Amino acid sequence: MDDTSTDPIWLVLSVAGADRDLSIAMREQPWWNEHAAFINALVDEGNVLLGGPLPDEGGALLVMRAPDAQTIRDRLAGDPWYVNKILRLVDVKRWEILIDEWAGAR
């Protein structure tokens, strides 16, 4: 993905995959190092704006920039956690931000 500054923003929802072990911590899951490196590369490219786990259920939420939902689906298809069924992609939804009080919330 090239210059993402004008691309729309998307919410990316994932849930625990079939091989996610909810009895162990996120960083103890198989393929953790590979997954973290993959996501860090997306951050470095400017495609991930926010992200993190949904700890009570083993899923995750990403806020990403991309020209369309299929671009995100294609890009995330190579994430070792999707490949190895630690996470399962549920939905990619376009998001228009109307309220932004983020700076005041930190």
Short description:
Belongs to the YciI family. This protein is α+β, with helices and mostly antiparallel strands. It has a single domain (9-96), classed as Dimeric alpha+beta barrel (Alpha-Beta Plaits).
Outline the structure in words.
The model has no long low-confidence stretch (mean pLDDT 93). The protein has helices spanning 32-44, 69-76, 80-83, 102-105, and strands spanning 9-16, 48-54, 59-65, 87-95. The relative contact order is 0.30. The chain is an alpha+beta fold and 106 residues long. The protein has a single domain, classed as Dimeric alpha+beta barrel (Alpha-Beta Plaits, 2-Layer Sandwich). It holds the Pfam family YCII. Belongs to the YciI family. InterPro entries: Dimeric_a/b-barrel (IPR011008), YCII (IPR005545).
